[in-house]
Design a protein that fits this description.
By secondary structure, this protein is mainly alpha-helical. It has helices at residues 3-18, 42-52, 80-105, 118-130, 133-156, 162-201, 205-237, 260-268, 286-323, 327-364, 381-387, 390-406, 411-431, 440-446, 448-460, 464-498, 500-505, and strands at residues 25-27, 30-32. A hairpin with a 2-residue loop joins strand 1 (25-27) and strand 2 (30-32). The N and C termini lie far apart (111 Å). This is O-acyltransferase.
């Protein structure tokens, strides 16, 4: 066949495929004919199909489509790759900081370098042993009140006149006043004596913090034990629909709950709210306890390493900047410290609320283990305080907020009292062990009230963007500014009193 005949044949094939009663369709650059070649012409048709795949008329733009990141797109793309990138960048940046820290300071970990005085250890041990005795003093007080209540119930079973019943009510109120007085003295001594010894006689802030935290926990348990038994006693002496008790309490009614065993369980249980009965698990999983304790001690070592190797140099290098009020340098120090303090804080959260409290709950077969909820997703500061540290939140709600609202206080005024009490306890927990009651922790807690008011609207909006803004305000105010700035100020106050700043002034 000549060249001209070949060209003519090819042109005829193209004309046939593009015209006629069954037009072909171009799909992804390939020609799909109405009828496949068969018989003696199958080889020629196959060659024609192969050639048509490379034609330059394929309709790639055949429909309306939007960019993946545009709002108009119908399919929301996955951002898993960006998440992986952020994790990689975060790891790389922290590795760089680790290398920089090692090149600049070397290894700062030193087990023997801590200033553990014998007096600190001895006094701390004595306080740890004696503080729980205040709970058992509360038991003696409640035992006396329970006996008085039994006598009152015995007299009420007799036919009494209205005047005699009124005298019984006055006797009950008088008994409660005496009981409340002794409970107040007992709980106050628990906190006051511990705070006095820690502030004046325990130098090491770590030992002092453990002692002060233990005293605050026992103080809160004392308060809950007294308030709850007061209402249980009232419900027994004056039963009514208003004083009806939860069904779970029916297995241990007042005053059968006033026993040493019942109080000891409350003392060791991971809760600050007293109940005669708690939900209990069926058995103890010792493997679970071992895992949680391993996590706790591992994270405790991790926190100690971070504090000694990374936080301490940043704090020491900030002293001269704070002394001369170099604002730019102070801000840079706060930003640098924020990463370390955030990691330490998250590790401390997991070690305490997930590991230690779950291990303790398993040993005590304590069933309600909602020690926190998803506070990291909080769209407002108010949501954060309701979901972080649930044991303290439940105590404040049950024994401070709800009673005040029930007595006619507005929710705002009751919230103010809750945060005032919390601010005092925070200042005691930080200021007394560091021997510097400078009010920073108190001010930080009270500043939560306007932040809660500012971020409250973001909690109520249905738009995801609003919740993101509220969550971002929470993270910035709490972890990027609040914690590192507070750590800097208390460290500077400590150094001004005992360290390099006081020596410079001399």
């Amino acid at each position: 066949m000549s060249a001209s005949e070949t060209v003519s044949s090819s042109a005829s094939a193209v004309s046939t495929s593009s015209g006629g009663s069954t037009p072909s369709k171009l799909v992804n650059g390939a020609t799909r004919n109405g009828s496949a070649g068969h018989g003696n012409g199958s080889t020629g048709a196959a060659k024609g199909n192969r050639r048509s795949k490379y034609r330059h008329v394929a309709a790639y733009h055949s429909q309306l489509r939007h960019s993946s990141l545009s709002r108009e797109t119908s399919v929301v793309p996955s951002f898993l790759g960006f998440r992986n990138l952020m994790v990689i960048v975060l790891v790389a940046m922290n590795l760089r900081l680790i290398i920089e820290n090692f090149m600049k300071y070397g290894v700062l970990i030193c087990i023997k370098c801590h200033d553990y005085r014998k007096q600190d250890v001895v006094l701390g041990s004595i306080l740890f042993a004696l503080v729980p005795c205040h709970l058992f003093l509360a038991y003696i007080i409640e035992l006396a009140a329970a006996r008085q209540s039994k006598q009152t119930v015995g007299r009420q079973k007799k036919d009494l006149s209205a005047e005699e019943r009124e005298r019984e009510q006055q006797a009950f109120r008088s008994t409660w006043r005496y009981t409340a007085f002794f409970h107040t003295v007992n709980a106050t001594l628990c906190l006051a004596v511990t705070s006095f010894v820690v502030y004046f006689y325990i130098n090491h802030p770590g030992i002092g913090t453990l002692c002060e935290l233990h005293a605050i926990i026992v103080w809160l348990k004392n308060c809950s034990y007294a308030f709850t038994n007061r209402d249980l006693r009232q419900a027994m002496l004056n039963p009514s629909a208003e004083s009806a008790l939860p069904e779970i309490y029916s297995t241990c009614p007042y005053p059968r709950n006033i026993t040493l065993g019942n109080l000891t369980y409350f003392w060791l249980a991971p809760t600050l709210v007293y109940q005669p009965v708690y939900p209990r698990s069926s058995h103890i999983r010792w493997s679970f306890v071992a895992k949680r304790l391993t996590e706790f001690f591992g994270l405790a070592v991790f926190i100690w390493l971070l504090s000694a190797q990374y936080a301490a140099p940043v704090l020491r290098n900030s002293i001269d900047k704070i002394a001369v009020m170099d604002i730019a340098s102070i801000l840079e120090r706060v930003m640098k410290l924020s990463t370390i303090s955030l990691i330490i804080w998250l590790a401390g959260f997991f070690a305490l609320f997930q590991s230690l409290l779950n291990a303790l709950a398993e040993v005590m077969r304590f069933g309600d283990r909602e020690f926190y909820t998803d506070w990291w997703n909080s769209p407002s500061l108010g949501a954060y305080w309701r979901s972080w540290n649930r044991p303290v939140y439940l105590f404040m709600k049950r024994h401070v907020f709800s009673p005040l609202v029930g007595r006619g206080w507005s929710p705002l005024a009751a919230s103010f009292m809750v945060f005032t009490l919390s601010a005092i306890l925070h200042e005691m927990l930080v200021g007394i062990p560091t021997h510097n009651l400078i009010g920073v922790a108190f001010a930080g807690m009270m500043f939560q009230l306007p932040l809660i008011a500012v971020t409250a609207p973001f909690e109520k909006v249905n738009d995801a963007l609003g919740k993101i803004v509220g969550n971002s305000i929470f993270w910035v105010s709490f972890c990027l500014v609040g914690q590192p700035l507070g750590a800097l100020l208390y460290f500077f106050a400590w150094q001004a009193k005992y360290g390099s700043v006081s020596k410079m002034r001399v």
